[in-house]
């Protein structure tokens, strides 16, 4: 989630790369509307939500961090 800043684009790219590299099939939604972002409880962008759970706000995650969060939600 994010309005389209460079950090938001980087996080989206990282998420898509992790999914491709691990072969995990998942729907990725990019939410850019400030009101919708805030409605999800994200106050700092970029934000990452997986299965309705906030995993990160306000920072660009590494591939290993993204993979860890995805794996947590697959259990």
Automatic annotation (TrEMBL):
The active site is at 5 (nucleophile), 8 (nucleophile). Residues 1-70 form the Thioredoxin-like fold domain. It holds the Pfam family Thioredoxin_3. The keyword Hydrolase does not apply. InterPro entries: Thioredoxin-like_fold, Thioredoxin-like_sf, THIRX-like_proc. Keywords: Disulfide bond, Redox-active center. Disulfide bonds join 5-8. NCBIfam families: redox_disulf_2. This is Small redox-active disulfide protein 2.
């Amino acid at each position: 989630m994010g309005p389209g800043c460079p950090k938001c684009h980087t996080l989206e790219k990282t998420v898509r790369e992790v999914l491709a590299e691990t072969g995990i099939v998942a729907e990725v939604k990019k939410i850019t509307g400030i009101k919708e972002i805030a409605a999800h409880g994200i106050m700092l962008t970029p934000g990452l939500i997986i299965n309705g759970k906030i995993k990160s706000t306000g920072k660009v995650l590494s591939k290993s961090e993204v993979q860890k969060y995805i794996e947590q939600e697959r259990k």
